[in-house]
Design brief:
Blueprint: H1 7-31, H2 35-42, E1 48-54, H3 55-63, H4 70-77, E2 79-87, E3 102-108, E4 112-120, E5 123-133, E6 136-146, H5 148-156
Antiparallel strand pairs: 1-2, 2-6, 3-4, 4-5, 5-6
Length: 157
């Protein structure tokens, strides 16, 4: 039986397929981003409002002598960063890599809301809240240790 494709053609095809797979992977990695990447990409963009709250602010709130429960103070002091992005035009969810997060909640009541979390055992390491309504798109990203037990105690009070 004669060979339909020569060995040289087979090698060329293998190289082409390998190159295609590598390029496709690079393109996908470039499209999917973290919330911090999105902040860096859109800060200064007139179509996006960006807000960053850092650990120092959460520590100050926890230390202030205001009427805040001890449990809530502890929760706040363990937060590292909060990033808020809002836009009338840009759907942030389309650009996020959510593969490392578990979807916790999805609500569709005229507005769309989704909450994703990166877990560390029973606790949350990162929380992403995405909303879409008639005014546009919103992303809230919270990074830090959110102990569910302490958060539950805050909600009960």
């Amino acid at each position: 039986m004669t060979q339909l494709v020569s060995k040289k053609q087979q090698k060329t095809m293998k190289k082409f397929i390998s190159l295609f797979v590598i390029l496709f992977t690079i393109v996908l990695m470039g499209l999917s981003q973290t919330p911090t990447d999105l902040y860096e990409k859109y800060k200064g963009n007139e179509d996006v409002t960006t807000i960053v709250l850092n650990h120092n602010l959460f520590g100050m709130v926890g230390d202030m002598e205001i009427e805040i429960e001890d449990e809530m103070s502890t929760v706040l002091q363990k937060l590292d960063k909060m990033i808020i992005l809002t836009s009338e035009k840009i759907n942030f969810q389309d650009e996020l890599d959510l593969t490392l997060y578990k979807e916790l909640i999805e609500v569709n009541d005229g507005e769309e809301s989704k909450i994703y979390a990166k877990l560390d055992g029973e606790d949350i390491k990162e929380l992403i809240i995405l909303t879409k309504d008639e005014d546009g798109y919103n992303l809230v990203f919270i990074k830090g240790l959110i102990e569910l037990e302490k958060l539950g105690n805050c909600v009960k009070k």
